[in-house]
């Protein structure tokens, strides 16, 4: 993900502890919630882990599906906008 997209997602999800925790659960990282609470941006850490896991095949659509399952259409829509903008610059 582009840095700007990551920053925007962090702003959306870090604002409420329950939201980034929900994201952690959706990507199977709930056992690290205690550690994540000590981080400046838990969402940034989670997105970094997600990207590392998805390195072999870009999983932006998978990430959008996760956000939809979390009822975070704002995050899913942000990915749509950001990936469309990115594609226009290629």
TrEMBL record:
<feature type="domain" description="Death">
    <location>
        <begin position="19"/>
        <end position="83"/>
    </location>
</feature>
<dbReference type="InterPro" id="IPR000488">
    <property type="entry name" value="Death_dom"/>
</dbReference>
<protein>
    <submittedName>
        <fullName>SJCHGC04091 protein</fullName>
    </submittedName>
</protein>
<dbReference type="InterPro" id="IPR011029">
    <property type="entry name" value="DEATH-like_dom_sf"/>
</dbReference>
<dbReference type="Pfam" id="PF00531">
    <property type="entry name" value="Death"/>
</dbReference>
<dbReference type="GO" id="GO:0007165">
    <property type="term" value="P:signal transduction"/>
</dbReference>
